Each structure stands twice: as structure tokens, then as C-alpha cells.
């Protein structure tokens, strides 16, 4: 704060005893310190004292004054540190009164250690006279003065200045002893002679002489900031050379020369600039020459950020000796007189993305009365075949204005010659007129990009074509005036306009788009062979037809097409037709958009606003799908389609015409999901998919005539059996109900996301109409209900899913058949105490704590998305109980439920915290899947997937339990296959009561896979005979996880426990080129056997090991354990590490390998045998 001494002197001393390492201060200036001793002297002393025997370190400071103001008649400032750091630091300090400019002031660091340094940075500079007094007094430690200033008298007294003769001064004499001077500031000197200053920077100064020369001293940089340099008759010359860092830095300065301005800077090593210019003004009667040489100059050997130049010629050159950037331009660069030439060069020594001449942020070059030349070059060094995305000339988001321009970019190794991207051209070079481009000197593989805002003029392009280009060059867009349309594109206002877009490019030229084409003719317009985009254009003709090139896409954006007597037609035969933000008008009554993609992709893509002001709109999109990829016949997600003419019809037909891949959510015939909007009098929407996915997805807000019942027609007829449709919540509920009640046939199961289209009262009414029974078929629609309670004799529903509901069939069966659609029952109780329960859907989900109970059979059949049965938690299971019948669960999930990657799909059947009971019958669970869940993790538990997935607490209780799990996923990398299995077991407890057969089969993964990392899974077999048959057909080597039976875990211990209680267990595992039984990757994975009963384990392989186990324990088993392994060419049985067996019989057999191999195991009271018959 403010400290005022109105009478007398002020003395302040601060002392710290430096006992421990750290940053401490003797006397410290706090925030806003302003000390005013109005009629006396000021003494400030700070000391950091070393305690005896303590050799401590740290950034300690005796006296630290930063951002402070001091005023007094005289001042004594002393700072000392006896250990480390600084004696005194005066940084950004203002001196006033008698001590202004450092007059009448002494500084000292006496008592400091020899390594201590000082800083003396006075606002406005330390006066030269005051500095000389301090020098004479001496200083004990190395002290840096931020800047010196000098009055006219001081210039003459100390620096040999004269207004009438040459002024030559070497800044090396400024310091001496322990003093170093960073810069001179506030120097105002005018002489009729020449000025030559060496070894000192300048700030806020003004020098005028016949000529002006500033030079860095030896290997020292030179900085000139906010300074005016004026050579009345000669040159202004600035130069500096450094071994490392920045050489010459000129910022915010005005330089004027009667002849030339010459700036040179060289950084011999490091990442610094040779020359950096920022927002200065240079005016020369002759020429301006700026040359920056660097090494690894990341921001350019020459860096120019803004500035004004006036000369006959302004020549800027930057060269980086090794990689990075030769020259970088940014900001507003104005040349008010003469020409501008900029060259950036790099020597390409190492691999990487480097640039010769680079446009930085906000580059705007304006050469108002001359020519512009920009050259960027990447040079190849002898013997160096370096690679990388190098660019000779890179101008992005730049503005160029000149009378004429020459742009050249070359790259001798790789990458691009020149890239002009989003560049605006003005003045004489607008639209590319009076401009040449070249990539001469580039390697043959080099490419160029020429993307001009508003388009490159057609005439300019033709001139460039005639001049030729050495490398393949893509033009972002071409534009054409009326004269250019007539001269180059055969246009006429009074006859048909036919133009083949194939003639646009040629040689090394490719045209990406036509823009700003405004053409009106009384004839027809037919543009064919269009392998391009048409944007920001307006075409009017009797009819308008745009046809894509044979195997090319066509894009039309921000464009108006008007057919005055005929129709508008856009067509592709093998490429995507993309239409975005267009206005269409057809006096003939029809605007047609047709696109076909013969291999993947999209037939027609609609985006933004599609406005049809006259006539109908017909959209036909077709795609053929190969492999695992997302495709659309028509993709109109988020599009707004407005067909506004009276009585106008919208027709949309999207087809996935062929499909050789598996299904996914992104195989769609017609996609109107997202926030799409439809407005027409009537609409006919058709979406088909021959094999997988969806026929149509509809979530459009309906407007205009489409709000009326009967105005919307939907169809997916022709779709495959497993294909479904979906209607979203943005679609009018009344329109959907009308279609249901009219029993509209759509052709495929159509799921609606609208909840409770019908309510409890409707169900009550339907039951009454059925004399106590409920039979309701919603046709092709699948509806969702919540909070519905149904009690009827028989219940037979088609197309329903329920949440938080209760369905009770009091005397008959309970049947829900959703055909190929999803069937979801969340927190919903099902009860048919005297009959059967039958659930059918593409996928079935039973979740929550509500029970499913039937007097007779319970049957669940899912044809494409699997069955998911999940209870609330481990203690509140999902109970499914049959009183006197069987339970049958069949889930098929091949090519279904893809999340958008190849690494996750759903299991055939998932049992999670579920209890299945058929005490008088059998339980059959069958699941088939091509599922996987990504890659194996060293320490994370993934919920893997397979034919059958078991997790949590699961119980099966019947006279005979059968689980058949099949994994049919294909693959050629084992890292993609290690998380899948015929049956996958996650951590939990799994009870099998009664005779049990578990059959697990995989084509490429593990037959039975224990996905337990740092946890356990327990299989309890009670009161019966149990078998586990696990087999893999995998032929892929290199994985310890893929086997008949195996683990996924890598590091953390996991245990697969088998417990028998009044039961027997026979395990048979079969591999092909892999092990029959494997421990996985971890040495800690353990097989454990316990309980009362006998257990036999058999493993076989052709080329792998029959049984390979590192950890096994049967100490808790009260019964026999028989282990038998066999292999044709591998080892029969391998027991290693932590195998602990008692009362066991172990036999291994191999035809040509080792029969039995044992190491590091604890085996007692057991029988061992091995045989190698070969």
C-alpha cells in the first residue's frame, strides 16, 4: 500500500535466517507498494542470513521490490543473501523525486555469497550518470540492468555523441566488471553524421542520422522495440548473429531510409528466429531487404507478423537449415508502394511435417500498387530421402491482394508443393486473374491444392491449364461469369445448354466443385459427367438435369434449380447423391432425386432445407452392401423437406438392394430419424432392406397436410425376414393410431417409441369385448405400454412391450408374439397359473424383480437379437417358474445389436441374477451368437459375450437342465477373439440342480470361457449327473486364452470352482490346434474342485496340449478326481507351478509328443501315468 513519511528519514530492514531449503525473502514489497519520503532519505535493507553449519539452497532474495514506487531525496538500497538466489531484485520499479532515474541512489549486495546475482530494472531506464556513479562505487555481485537511458548531455559526456559528426558507439563498454546492460531506452539522438551502434538493443528511442547501423555484438541478439530509426540520405542496417536463440527482433518500430533498409539475422542452432518483425513501419526510397537464417526454426527463420512496407521492392527471405519453417507470415501486411517478394526455404533433413513458407493466423497481404511473389520450397539434402507431410507453400485462411501475383511451392521429397486452402483473392488477382501458380521442382508424387473462396475464375483456370502444372492439382471450386459460361462451357440464353463435366479438368487438374454459377436459358439444361459439387448457384431452364459421372458422387448445395416448363432431375449411377439446402421448382410437376451406390455408402443424402415450391418431389436411393459397414439407401437424418405446392406429393424410396454382411443398426433403407421435418400434402415413404437392419426409421415432425389422418403411407414390403422398422416419438401419435386402426400393412415389424398410444381403459374395453379374454393384434406395429394391469382368461397379444405392468391369464395361456421386433418386459409380472407362457420376438428382454410364473410350459424365442434375463441384483433375482411343464429359452444373435464397431454384439442368451425352476419338467437354454467385447485387458473385467452369458447369481432347477451355447464369430486376429466363447462365465455363483448337460462350442474362440479377473466363479452341481462338453474349432495359434476351456485374466488371480453335492461331474474339453484346457495368460488362474462326488476331467488336442494347468486344487473334494489328457503331436497333460492334488488319477498320452509333463507341483496319494506312443 501507500507509506508516506512527511518528515524525517525512513529506514526499513528485513532479515530471514535461512535454515532449510526453499524460497525466502529478507525484505519483500507487497501489492501496490508506494513509499514516499517527502523531505528525507530512504534506506531499504534486506538480508537472508546463513546459519552456522547449514548449507541450504533455494531461490532466496535479500531485497525484493517488484512493481513498486519509491520517492525520496536520497536512497540506499541493499540486499544480501549468504547462501543462494539473489541479493536484490528491483523489477518494474518506478523512481521519483530526488532519486528519479537512479540519481542520488546507491545499491549494494555486500555480504552476499559469490554466486549471488542482482537485478536492477527501473521503469523508463536507469540514468546513465547514476549508472556511472554506481559503477564507480562498485558492486560485489553480477548485476543486470534492465535498461539505461541518457539525456543529451549524458549522450555527449558518456557515449561520444555529437549532433554534427558521425556517432559510433560499442555497447560492450557499457557494462564492465560485474555489470551487464540489457538495453538502451529513451535515447533521442539526431546528427548530421552517420550512426553506428554495436552490441545494444533499443526501446522507446528515436535515432536520426545520415545512415543508421545497429549491430549485435559478436554472438549476441539485437532487439529493437517501439523505436524510430531514420536515415536521411543513406541506409538503415540492422544485423545480428547468435549461436542459439533469436537473432534479430524488431517490434512496433518505424524505420525510414533515404536509400535501402537492410535487416539480416542468423541463428546458427536451436529453434529461434533469424529475424522477427512485428507490426512495424518501413519506408525506403530504394529497396527493403530482410533475410532471416535459422536452423530448427519452429516459428520461421523469418517471422513477420503485421507491418507496413513502402519501397521499390520489398524482399523477405527466410531459410531454415534443418526442417521446420523457412518463413512465416501473419497479421496485416501492407505494401503501399512497390512490389513484395517473400521466399521461405527449408532443408529437409529429417522425417516430419515441415513448411517452406507458412501463413500464420489472420494473414492479410495487401500490395496496393505492385506485384506479389510468394515462394515456398522444401529442398532435398544430398543422401537424405526424408519423408513426411511437407509443404512448400502453405496458405490457409489467408487474404491476398495485388495487381499481379506469382505463387510457387515445391517439395523435393514428399507431401505437397503448394496448398492454398480457404484463400481470398482481391484486387487485380480476384478470382485468380493475373495470377500464376507453379510446383516446378517438386517430386513426381507431390500434389497441390488450390481452394479459392468464391471459386477460381474459369478464365484464370484456363490460363493456368495452358501454362501447365507439374503435379496433380485439385481446384476446390471454379466459378464462371456469363461471358466465361459462353466462352468455355457452351452456354446460350436462347438454346439448350449441354455440358459434359468430364472436360473440366484434364492433365494434372481435378475440379472439386462449381460455385456461383448463375445461368438462365429458354432451352433445357443438361449437365453430365459431373464428378464434382455444385454450390451457391442458380440454374433456370426449360428443364434442368444434373447427372453424375459414371462412378462418381454428385453434391448440390445452397443452390436453386428452376424448370420453367419441364422437370428437375438429379441422378447418380454409382455414387452418392448429396443434396443440401436447395430450392427446387418444376413446372412440369416432378422434381426427382435419384442416387445409387453400388458398393456401400449411401444412395441419396439429404441435409439442411430441401424446399420444393412447384410440383412433387420424388427421392430414390439405392445401395448395395458388402462386408461389415454402415449403409443407407436414403439418409435424411435431420433434414427439413418442404414440398409446399398445393396438393403436392412427397415420394421417398430407400433400398438396401443387396447385403453380404451381417446386420447392424446402421443398415437402413430410408432414414428419417434425428430431428427431420416433413411438410407435404401427402407422403409415400418406402424403405426396404433385403437382409439386415431397418427398412425405415421415421422420427420426423409432420407438418402441413401430413397432420391429417390418411395422408402418410409407410411401407417396407420387400424387406428380409429379420428386418424391422421404427417410428419415433416426434411422429404424430394420431397419425400412427390411424394406421393401426386401419390395419395398414407395412410389410415388416414396426416398433414405435411412443408410450401408451392406448391406455388402461382401452385394454379393459378389449377384454370386455372378448368375453373375458384378450386378443389384440397390432398388425405390423410394436407398441410400448407402461403401468398397465391386465387380467383375462386368455391373453394373446401381437406387437407389445410393457414396463411396470402386470399381465395375468387366469384360465388359459399368455402369449406375446412380436414377430421380428423387440419384446421388452421391464419390471413386469407375467402369470398364467393354468396355462403356458409364450414370448416371441427378434430380441427379448426380461428385466427387473417381477416374476414369470406358468402352470405349464414357458417358451422364449428370440430370432435376431438374443434373450436377456436380468434381475434387480444378486438377492432379488428374476424368477421364472413352471409348475408342471418345461422351460425353453432360445436366443439367436448373429449379426445383430452392433454398436457401430466390430467388437461388440449381444449374446444369444444372457442370464444375470436369474432363477429358473421347472421342478416337474426340463429346462433347455440355447444361445447362438457371433458376439465379442473388444480386447483382453491386463487388469480390467469386461462383460464378455457369447452364445450364453452367465453372470451374478443364477440357478437352474429341473429334472434335466441343458445349456447349449454356440459362438460362430469369425476372425483372423486372436486379440479379436479372446473375449468370446460358446458359453462365457463371469464372476458369480451358478447353481444347477438335477441332471445337467452343458455344451459349449466356439468356431474361433474358447468353448467355455471364464471371464474372471481377480474374482471367482462357482458352479454348483446338485442331485444328479452333470457333464460339461466344451469344444473349439479354432486353428489360430498364438493365444493361451483360446482353448476348449480357458480364462481371460492376465495378471490378477481368478478361480473357476466346481462343487458337487450328491452329484457327479464329467468335463470334456476339445481343442484343435489349441489346448483342450488352458489356464489363460495368468499363472494365477486356478481350477478348484470340492464337495461330495466324483469328478473326471478329459482334454484333447491335435497339435496343442490336451490339458495345460498351472493352478489346480482338489483338497476340498470328497471323491475321486480323474484327469486324462491326450494330444496327437503336443503334450497330453502338463501340470506346472501351483498344482496341488490328492487322491487323483492323472494320465497323459501323446502320439508324437510328451505324454505327461509335471514341474513344481504338489501331488500326493495319486496315480500318475504318461505315454508317448510315437
Automatic annotation (TrEMBL):
Q: Which domain of life is it from?
A: Bacteria
* Region annotated Disordered, chain positions: 1150-1174
Annotated protein name in UniProt: S-layer family protein
Amino acid at each position: 500500500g501507500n507509506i508516506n513519511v512527511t518528515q524525517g528519514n525512513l529506514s526499513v530492514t528485513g532479515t530471514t535466517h535461512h535454515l532449510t531449503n526453499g524460497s525466502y525473502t529478507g525484505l519483500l514489497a507487497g501489492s501496490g507498494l508506494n513509499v514516499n519520503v517527502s523531505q528525507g532519505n530512504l534506506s531499504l535493507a534486506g538480508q537472508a542470513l546463513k546459519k552456522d553449519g547449514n548449507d541450504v539452497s533455494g531461490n532466496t532474495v535479500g531485497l525484493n521490490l517488484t512493481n513498486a514506487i519509491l520517492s525520496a531525496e536520497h536512497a540506499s538500497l541493499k540486499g544480501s543473501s549468504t547462501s543462494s538466489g539473489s541479493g536484490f531484485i528491483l523489477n518494474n520499479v518506478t523512481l521519483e523525486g530526488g532519486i528519479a532515474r537512479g540519481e542520488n541512489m546507491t545499491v549494494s549486495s555486500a555480504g552476499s555469497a559469490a554466486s549471488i546475482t542482482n537485478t536492477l530494472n527501473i521503469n523508463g531506464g536507469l540514468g546513465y550518470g547514476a549508472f556511472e556513479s554506481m559503477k564507480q562505487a562498485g558492486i560485489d555481485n553480477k548485476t543486470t540492468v534492465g535498461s539505461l537511458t541518457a539525456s543529451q548531455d549524458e549522450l555527449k559526456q558518456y557515449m561520444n555523441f555529437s549532433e554534427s559528426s558521425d556517432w559510433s558507439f560499442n555497447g560492450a563498454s557499457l557494462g564492465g566488471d560485474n555489470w551487464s546492460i540489457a538495453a538502451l531506452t529513451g535515447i533521442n539522438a539526431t546528427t548530421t553524421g552517420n550512426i553506428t551502434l554495436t552490441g545494444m538493443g533499443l526501446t522507446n528511442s528515436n535515432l536520426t542520422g545520415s545512415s543508421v547501423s545497429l549491430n549485435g555484438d559478436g554472438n549476441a541478439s539485437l532487439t529493437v522495440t517501439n523505436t524510430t530509426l531514420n536515415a536521411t540520405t543513406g541506409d538503415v542496417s540492422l544485423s545480428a548473429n547468435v549461436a542459439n536463440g533469436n537473432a534479430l527482433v524488431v517490434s512496433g518500430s518505424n524505420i525510414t531510409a533515404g536509400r535501402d533498409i537492410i535487416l539480416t539475422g542468423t541463428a546458427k542452432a536451436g529453434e529461434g528466429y533469424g529475424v522477427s518483425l512485428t507490426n512495424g513501419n518501413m519506408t525506403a526510397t530504394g529497396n527493403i531487404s530482410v533475410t532471416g537464417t535459422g536452423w530448427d526454426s519452429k516459428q520461421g527463420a523469418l517471422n513477420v507478423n503485421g507491418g507496413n512496407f513502402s519501397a521499390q521492392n520489398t524482399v523477405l527471405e527466410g531459410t531454415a537449415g534443418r526442417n521446420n519453417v523457412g518463413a512465416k507470415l501473419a497479421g496485416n501486411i501492407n505494401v503501399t508502394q512497390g512490389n513484395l517478394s517473400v521466399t521461405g526455404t527449408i532443408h529437409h533433413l529429417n522425417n516430419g511435417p515441415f513448411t517452406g513458407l507458412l501463413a500464420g493466423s489472420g494473414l492479410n497481404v495487401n500490395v496496393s500498387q505492385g506485384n506479389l511473389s510468394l515462394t515456398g520450397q522444401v529442398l532435398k539434402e544430398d543422401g537424405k530421402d526424408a519423408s513426411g507431410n511437407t509443404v512448400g507453400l502453405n496458405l490457409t485462411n489467408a487474404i491476398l491482394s495485388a495487381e499481379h501475383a506469382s505463387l510457387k511451392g515445391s517439395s523435393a521429397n514428399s507431401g505437397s508443393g503448394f496448398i492454398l486452402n480457404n484463400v481470398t483473392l482481391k484486387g487485380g488477382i480476384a478470382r485468380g486473374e493475373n495470377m500464376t501458380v507453379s510446383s516446378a521442382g517438386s517430386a513426381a508424387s507431390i500434389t497441390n491444392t488450390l481452394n479459392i473462396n468464391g471459386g477460381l475464375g474459369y478464365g484464370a483456370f484456363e490460363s493456368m491449364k495452358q501454362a501447365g502444372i507439374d503435379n496433380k492439382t485439385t481446384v476446390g471450386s471454379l466459378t464462371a461469369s456469363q461471358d466465361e459460361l459462353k466462352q468455355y462451357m457452351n452456354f446460350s440464353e436462347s438454346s439448350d445448354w449441354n455440358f459434359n463435366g468430364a472436360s473440366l479438368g484434364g492433365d494434372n487438374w481435378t475440379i472439386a466443385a462449381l460455385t456461383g454459377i448463375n445461368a438462365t436459358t429458354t432451352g433445357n439444361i443438361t449437365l453430365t459427367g459431373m464428378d464434382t459439387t455444385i454450390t451457391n448457384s442458380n440454374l433456370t431452364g426449360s428443364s434442368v438435369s444434373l447427372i453424375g459421372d459414371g462412378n462418381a458422387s454428385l453434391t448440390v448445395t445452397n443452390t436453386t434449380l428452376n424448370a420453367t416448363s419441364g422437370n428437375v432431375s438429379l441422378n447418380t449411377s454409382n455414387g452418392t447423391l448429396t443434396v443440401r439446402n436447395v430450392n427446387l421448382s418444376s413446372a412440369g410437376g416432378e422434381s426427382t432425386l435419384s442416387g445409387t451406390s453400388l458398393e456401400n455408402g449411401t444412395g441419396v443424402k439429404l441435409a439442411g432445407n430441401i424446399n420444393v415450391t412447384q410440383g412433387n418431389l420424388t427421392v430414390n436411393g439405392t445401395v448395395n452392401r458388402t462386408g461389415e459397414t454402415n449403409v443407407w439407401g436414403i439418409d435424411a437424418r435431420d433434414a427439413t423437406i418442404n414440398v409446399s405446392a398445393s396438393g403436392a406429393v412427397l415420394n421417398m424410396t430407400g433400398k438396401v438392394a443387396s447385403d453380404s454382411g451381417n446386420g447392424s443398426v446402421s443398415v437402413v433403407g430410408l432414414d428419417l430419424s434425428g430431428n427431420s421435418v416433413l411438410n407435404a400434402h401427402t407422403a409415400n415413404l418406402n424403405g426396404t432392406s433385403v437382409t439386415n437392419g431397418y427398412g425405415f426409421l421415421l422420427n420426423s415432425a409432420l407438418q402441413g397436410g401430413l397432420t391429417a389422418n390418411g395422408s402418410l403411407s409407410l411401407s417396407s414390403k420387400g424387406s428380409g425376414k429379420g428386418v424391422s422398422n421404427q417410428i419415433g416419438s416426434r411422429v404424430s401419435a394420431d397419425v400412427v393410431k390411424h394406421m393401426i386402426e386401419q390395419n395398414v400393412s407395412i410389410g415388416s415389424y414396426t416398433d414405435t417409441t411412443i408410450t401408451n398410444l392406448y391406455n388402461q381403459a382401452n385394454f379393459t374395453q378389449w377384454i370386455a369385448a372378448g368375453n373375458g379374454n384378450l386378443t389384440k393384434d397390432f398388425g405390423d406395429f410394436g407398441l410400448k405400454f407402461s403401468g398397465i394391469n391386465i387380467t383375462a382368461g386368455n391373453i394373446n397379444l401381437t406387437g407389445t412391450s410393457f414396463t411396470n405392468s402386470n399381465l395375468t391369464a387366469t384360465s388359459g395361456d399368455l402369449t406375446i408374439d412380436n414377430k421380428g421386433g423387440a419384446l421388452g418386459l421391464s419390471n413386469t409380472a407375467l402369470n398364467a397359473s393354468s396355462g403356458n407362457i409364450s414370448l416371441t420376438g427378434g430380441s427379448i428382454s426380461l428385466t427387473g424383480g417381477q416374476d414369470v410364473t406358468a402352470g405349464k410350459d414357458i417358451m422364449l424365442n428370440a430370432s435376431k437379437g438374443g434373450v436377456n434375463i436380468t434381475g434387480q441384483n444378486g438377492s432379488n433375482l428374476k424368477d421364472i417358474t413352471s409348475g408342471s411343464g418345461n422351460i425353453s429359452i432360445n436366443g439367436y444373435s448373429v449379426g445383430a445389436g452392433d454398436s457401430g464397431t466390430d467388437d461388440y454384439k449381444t449374446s444369444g442368451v444372457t442370464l444375470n441374477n436369474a432363477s429358473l425352476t421347472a421342478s416337474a419338467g426340463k429346462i433347455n437354454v440355447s444361445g447362438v451368437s457371433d458376439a465379442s467385447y473388444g480386447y483382453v485387458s491386463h487388469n480390467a473385467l469386461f462383460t464378455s459375450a457369447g452364445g450364453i452369458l452367465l453372470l451374478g447369481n443364477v440357478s437352474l432347477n429341473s429334472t434335466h437342465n441343458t445349456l447349449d451355447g454356440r459362438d460362430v464369430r469369425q476372425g483372423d486376429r486372436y486379440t479379436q477373439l479372446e473375449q468370446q466363447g460358446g458359453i462365457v462365465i463371469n464372476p458369480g455363483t451358478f447353481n444347477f440342480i438335477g441332471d445337467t448337460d452343458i455344451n459349449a462350442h466356439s468356431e474361433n474362440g474358447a468353448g467355455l470361457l471364464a471371464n474372471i479377473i481377480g474374482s471367482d466363479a462357482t458352479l454348483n452341481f446338485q442331485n444328479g449327473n452333470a457333464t460339461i462338453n466344451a469344444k473349439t474349432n479354432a486353428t489360430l495359434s498364438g493365444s493361451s486364452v483360446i482353448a476348449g476351456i480357458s480364462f481371460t485374466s492376465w495378471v490378477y488371480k481368478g478361480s473357476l470352482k466346481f462343487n458337487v453335492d450328491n452329484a457327479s461331474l464329467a468335463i470334456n474339453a476339445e481343442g484343435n490346434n489349441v489346448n483342450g484346457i488352458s489356464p489363460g495368460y495368468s499363472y494365477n488362474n486356478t481350477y478348484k474342485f470340492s464337495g461330495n462326488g466324483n469328478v473326471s476331467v478329459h482334454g484333447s488336442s491335435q497339435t496343442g496340449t490336451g490339458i495345460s494347468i498351472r493352478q489346480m486344487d482338489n483338497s476340498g473334494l470328497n471323491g475321486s478326481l480323474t484327469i486324462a489328457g491326450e494330444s496327437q503331436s503336443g503334450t497330453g497333460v502338463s501340470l506346472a507351478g501351483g498344482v496341488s492334488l490328492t487322491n487323483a488319477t492323472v494320465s497323459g498320452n501323446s502320439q508324437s509328443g510328451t505324454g505327461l509333463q509335471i514341474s513344481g507341483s504338489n501331488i500326493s496319494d495319486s496315480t500318475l501315468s504318461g505315454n508317448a506312443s510315437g
